[in-house]
């Protein structure tokens, strides 16, 4: 199976693309989260912001340990390939499509599935029903193809029809660099 050739970044059109809730610190992140009143992102648990900061630290540590070279403290989030379901997070969704080939391998990492889901399944004994070998790990570009070959790509058909796959909706890509992002910022 081949790796999808494009990354997709979904966002609220009114707010614009490439905004990370953790970019400006804890207090600002809490303030931003408290202002979200519509869409799936308004239904986050009360401890979401604290979980997100802790998770991003783990992602970055694993990424660096594997040889990644982040140029940011926090990543921009994408899906590997298109994910129609991700549009449900927003009231008025927008999308930016970037070729995977436009990014340097040293600046991107992957989790299967979404990083919050992957690490919660890895950490929480009560979620063992959904845990898979690929959970709780960060992958580099040269590793994600093997993971896809072994487990396949997430698909709507799979997560809607197989209980153990219902949270495996996409492979998340973390982009740890601003360079390519700036080129696409104005195209959104």
> Tally of extended strands?
5
Proportion of residues in extended strands: 5-15%
Q: Tell me about the largest β-sheet.
A: 5 strands, antiparallel
In one word, what is the shape?
A: globular
What is the overall pLDDT average? 86
* Helix count from the secondary structure assignment: 6
What is the H/E order? Answer: EHHEEEHHHEH
Helix fraction by DSSP (H/I, runs of at least 4): 25-40%
Low-pLDDT residue intervals, each spanning 5 or more residues: none
What's the Cα radius of gyration?
16 Å
User: How would you classify the helix and strand content by structural class?
Assistant: alpha+beta
Could you give the order of strands across the largest sheet? 3-1-2-5-4
| Terminal-residue CA separation | 30 Å
Number of domains: 1
Structural account:
- With 188 residues, the protein is an alpha+beta fold.
- It has six helices and five strands.
- A five-stranded antiparallel sheet has the order 3-1-2-5-4, with no helix packed on it.
- The protein starts with 5 loop residues before the first strand and ends with a helix.
- The model has no long low-confidence stretch (mean pLDDT 86).
């Amino acid at each position: 199976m081949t790796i999808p050739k494009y990354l997709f970044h979904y966002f609220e059109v009114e707010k614009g693309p490439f905004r990370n809730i953790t970019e400006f610190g804890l207090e600002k992140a809490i303030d931003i989260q408290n202002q979200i009143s519509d869409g799936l992102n308004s239904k986050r648990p009360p401890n979401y912001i604290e979980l997100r900061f802790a998770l991003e630290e783990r992602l970055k540590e694993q990424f660096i340990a594997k040889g990644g070279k982040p140029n940011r403290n926090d990543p921009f989030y994408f899906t590997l390939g298109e994910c129609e379901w991700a549009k449900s997070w927003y009231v008025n969704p927008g999308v930016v499509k970037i070729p995977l080939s436009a990014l340097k391998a040293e600046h991107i990492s992957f989790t299967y599935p979404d990083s919050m889901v992957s690490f919660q399944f890895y950490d929480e004994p009560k979620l063992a029903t959904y845990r898979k070998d690929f959970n709780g790990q960060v992958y580099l570009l040269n590793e994600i193809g093997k993971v896809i070959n072994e487990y396949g790509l997430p698909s709507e058909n799979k997560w809607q029809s197989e209980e153990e796959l219902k949270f495996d909706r996409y492979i998340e890509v973390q982009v740890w660099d601003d360079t390519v992002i700036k080129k696409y910022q104005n195209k959104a």
